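One-letter codes give the sequence; the integers encode the fold. A sample entry reads:
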Amino acid sequence: MWMFYSHYPPGFLKFTPGLLFFFLFNPQSFAVKAQVIPKAVEISGEESEIGYKFYASNVNHCPVSLIFSFDAVNICGLPTKRILVEANVQKQFLFEMKLCDPRKDYKFEYKCNTWLGDTELSSYDSTFIYTLPFPKGKAYKVSQGYFGIFSHQHLQALDFEMPEGSSVCAMRDGIVVCIKNNSRIGYNHSSSMEDANFILIYHKDGTFAIYGHLMQKGNLVAEGESVQQGQVIAYSGNTGWSSGPHLHVAVFSYKPGENFDIRTYSAYFKEANQAKTILQEGKTYTSIHP
């Protein structure tokens, strides 16, 4: 979406009071195409001594990246990269726009894409040990592992063979950011990718975890709720792009321009035979929750 501001008399910077701008972007996901669109981020402004100050409010339960691009004449102080807006913030300063030369006219156009999390995440806790996403004592096979040939070719994601209605546990503490639970459709074709039910959880190191193919109305947690590692959060299912009942999980951050606009990460897991391991396709693992 482009917003256009026309020429005005030199030295006069006009902003329409009460005009709200909502920029939403549809980041594509993986074998579970989680249509995780940030809730509306409101961008507002107020006059300053040299121009105009811009602010944002964010009702999402995680930080949100605003990526601006501008086409401007006689305007200075514009952002050159993404701006991170904190979670659940009512008013955060973004930047101050001013006239480069008050004696001349100005104009500008801009657009802003909105993404969940920090799109420039430079580091994360690569040493963290996750628990398997099912209750203590349960054992399930990894039917598709990292970079699997079926639907994980470019992704570090995991599929567990799991009967419908099996308990799904949080692999790590976090905040529930988004839930989809209204689908009953499951079909072995990529056209059904958007039909997968899922839970998206945000971690304190800036990464997300997705739990996909869940049962219709199979969630046991709500958006904004804090969850603990090992907590039962949902029941597994067979919704979305699926060749049979299973659970899809991945740890990732949004990264525009990379594979599917995300960057996935490998994760260490705690299981019955080892305190720390990278899960392998075709092997069965037993959960040992703390």
